[in-house]
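Troubleshooting log. The previous run stalled partway through. Resubmitting the same two chains, unchanged.
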Amino acid sequence: MKKTPLFVVSMALLLLLLAFQWLLPRREFSEMENRVLAQPPEISVSSLTNGRWADRFEAFAADQIPLRDTFVSLYMTMEAATGRRLVDGVLLGQDGRMLDRTDGYSERNVRLNAAALRALSEQTGVPAYLLAVPSAALIYPEAVPAHAPVADESALLRAAGEETALLPLINSLRDVRGCGELYYHTDHHWNMGGAQVGYQIVCQALGLNAMPVDELTEELPFFGSFYARCPLPWQAPDDFCFADVSGLRLIADGEEKAGLVDEAQLQKRDRYAALLYGNHGLMELINDSQNDGTLFVIKDSFANSLLPLLARHFHRIVAIDPRYYAGNVVEEVNNCNCEVILCVSGLSSLASSRNLALLDGL
Amino acid sequence: MLFSSLSFLLYFLPPVILIHLFLPKRLQNPFLFFASLFFYAWGDARFVPLFFGLLIVDWGCGLLLEKAEKQSIRKLVLALGVAANMGSLFLFKYMGFFASLVGTSATIGQSLPLGISFFTFQATGYLVDVYRKQTKCERNLFAFGTFLFMFPQLIAGPIVRYSDLSQALHEKRRPEGKALEMGMALFIGGLAAKVLLANPLGAFAEEMRELMEQDTLCAWLYMLCYSLQIYFDFLGYSVMAVGMGRMLGFFFPRNFNHPYAASSVTDFWRRWHITLSGWFRDYVYIPLGGNRRGTARTILNMLAVWSLTGFWHGASWEFILWGLWYFVMLVADKYLLERLKAPGALRRLVMYVSVGIGWMMFSANGAEHILPMLQSLVTVRSEGHALFWLREMGPVLVAAALCCVPALVNGAKKLMKRLAYLRFAVMLALLLLSLAALTKSSYNPFLYFRF
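Second attempt completed without errors. Output:
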């Protein structure tokens, strides 16, 4: 040992990691990274010969390595300490603000999705509006690292506006950005502040009288999706709260939920996924204190903080998420007798996929 | 199994090294042989029969070469042995290429047995050495199998000559503390070169490849990143191999000697992948007459060697063109720059240009991409966020560039030799950081699957 400290310590370290990989209980899920962790792969003749078993075994060895969270933090620290500002697709902006890398956004996708919304409106005779939520990079440009690979989101929104009725959200967000946070620092979503601005804009467009939002819950510390990809040890948490609107019933994929928020998920790291119990192909919000009015919504997760506010104005909101919805959207709109169609979506979804344009019936 | 994987670092390396250390002499070779077989079969067990087939043929041919006295029989045996090795190489590696030349496709050769280019060359060199009576044949099958397939050098070299290992194969290998310590330090150094330098450089190279047609600076950054990536990747594998060899009681030859500090193209190839250049020198160039038969013949011999060197690196046109490119630049260096007594700076500049352009060709992934890639170096464009990327990769580039300077690397080595505590601390830190990178980072390519 005296003559060979490096050999002995390195071997001991590797053997201890090996031993504890089997002695410690296996983890199913990494809260820090928000993903399912690999388990020991099952053996089959075909997987052994085609190399898949070896790949799965390597995934297991990495995912179940003892002190995985510590190793991940160490790696993140090394990345940040060597001046990296783009780690795992997350841009590390000013003042702890994490941002998406968006240079892969496609204007063609935006146009196809926006045109699909207009086509839906034309086919059903129901007016449709698009509330496209840009990323924080557009509202807080000073936080974006210089020359960073980000898309020109203004141009993308202009393109959307040329294809369909786009609600004027950006100017309002910019007007109030000095009054409080509109986006999370550690998550790609807007926060309740941003959602309230969106609410005002929708009310203006639909001729509703915006109601004050006085049901906000107590703030909880929150580490969002950016943090899950890039868990910097010194990242400060966001404050997480939501509008706890009473008197609403949530029916998600045919099942009535107990309340609007998944209390179990709310205790976990990804609190945003607790809102409306996450994403569903088809869901309804029923407000028994309103007698009439139906709103049809095409949404992604950006709508989850906003819909409870809007639900106060309608008897029923029917919402589909194009990523998970498999039915015929034209029939769905015709069947629900709605007065208006609203698409609430992050610009990210509109620009990086064609889910809306690919909906059946369009 | 790849060295830079947790399967290898946790499950394979420590048990194998430690068990080998304490085994009696007669069990060491069989153990190492079966461990290597396990290592080889881990990812892909389909080629184990090939592994055994070549083992038996090469071992048998070696015995016959030594036993036979008639020159005609010895020649026949050598021809058969070489044909078996080169035939399997042709079948698995080049059949598809030649089939595509005549417009058909080959069913065999769809996937390449890992390391086939290394162990077939090693076996061929062995047979020629025995034929030339430069070395005795290996009678013990396990010792021979250990020589041919030993896991540290099985999949990415260095290409080892039998005479380098023959003594250690027949001794009780009980590496001393110093050898274990040095071997572990080399292994960790190689691992860090692969995981902490080559992998991030490779990730940047991939980004720059996407952007090079929009931005001139990105094209240059691509050339820089890829040149450094392939060096530290290959160096890392070779140094890990040498380090594991030391821990097992073997001395493997050095494969790299600061190639990017070379003074000319000729010098570069004395420092890059030394064991491969040595193989081509000993078994192709010199048998063809080397440089002893006049200028025209020498140039012809160089053409043969460099076409083959290119083709060895992969069965497609870009590798052949890459080899021919070096043929042209080496001839120019030898017969133009050297004879005209060109200033050292010029020869060095020509070396950097040759190597940089060479790596562009090498990584083109299809000969049709070579010209557009080279054009992107000289077409002025700037739409790729190049300044962001330059700043982003700056620290890694600087670190990698410093590791290319012989004076710095040798100085650090000397310092660590003298200060054991420093070596311990630095190497342990590098091991922990490499483990962290292997845990979290998903980018960990294996570059030699086409070799």
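Takeaways: The mean pLDDT of chain A is 91. Chain A is about 35% helix and 15% strand.
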